[in-house]
Design brief:
Oligomer: single chain
Strand order of the largest sheet: 11-6-5-8-3-10-12
Strand content: 25-35%
CATH class of the largest domain: Mainly Beta
CATH topology of the largest domain: Jelly Rolls
Radius of gyration: 26 Å
Helix content: 10-25%
Number of domains: 2
Number of helices: 3
């Protein structure tokens, strides 16, 4: 019994001495274990998004964001034997009907002329289920591996703009050699809670504004129908017209 009490006291003391756990950073995308093995050209400007990866090429948390949060770092693997071209990291949201919606993007950068991985610090909002992508332009871009398999990505030409929703032009087979670190953003200020935000407050959501026009018009329909003894058909027509007004 004394041994049990001592064990409980030891565990309790250890728990009190340990720092409070913060929300962990998650990494999604490629594990960047493969070297670039193919150069991809683009006529004009293009967006590429990764929609699947083989299990042995995945970062620890898959290829889609498991949380609502903020991209605090992103990485890309390049090959110094080939000229590096300007790129921008992208967040892409799956939409209905096989379409995708453009999310936020980084500034346009040119990775350093190295063989290996380059990391860039950022603050880009990301939602649960969002995917990683890349904007790139003319030239042969050596940021891809050939191990991803059929239909593992999608190509947009021209670039998928932020807020734009449309279908891709082609399925792609290459592995996009990028990944990203994501932190939760509990107060919706665009900063990662763990490393970027030193003042976390409640997440404020602005209530949608209403004009009251529709409600007023529907009330008038009912009042006139009662006063003038409208038929059901005439009342229905009045309500239909009222429902076209702003809320």
């Amino acid at each position: 019994m004394k041994k049990l009490q001592l064990l409980v006291l030891t565990i309790t003391a250890g728990a009190l001495a340990a720092p409070a756990m913060s929300q962990a950073t998650v990494t999604i995308g490629s594990d960047l274990g493969d070297a670039p093995s193919i150069g991809i050209g683009c006529l004009g400007s293009c967006t590429r998004v990764q929609t699947s990866l083989p299990s042995d090429d995945l970062a620890p948390n898959g290829f889609a964001s498991p949380v609502n949060g903020t991209v605090i770092h992103w990485r890309i693997r390049s090959d110094a034997s080939n000229t590096q071209t300007p790129i921008a990291f992208r967040v892409i949201s799956p939409a209905t009907g096989g379409q995708f919606t453009g999310g936020g993007s980084s500034a346009t950068v040119t990775p350093p002329d190295i063989t290996g991985v380059s990391q860039f610090d950022d603050s880009i909002p990301v939602k649960l289920g969002d995917l990683l992508g890349l904007n790139y332009g003319n030239g042969t871009n050596w940021y891809f591996g050939i191990s991803a398999g059929p239909n593992s990505g999608q190509l947009f030409n021209p670039t998928l703009a932020e807020g734009s929703t449309r279908s891709p032009q082609n399925n792609t087979t290459e592995q996009l050699l990028i990944n990203a670190d994501i932190e939760a953003d509990s107060d919706c200020d665009g900063l990662g809670d763990e490393t970027q935000d030193n003042q976390i407050t409640a997440c404020s959501v602005t209530a949608p504004q209403t004009t009251g026009q529709r409600a007023t018009a529907l009330k008038k329909c009912k009042k006139k129908a009662k006063k003038k003894h409208w038929t059901k058909k005439k009342l229905k027509k009045c309500k239909k017209k009222a429902k076209k007004l702003p809320v």
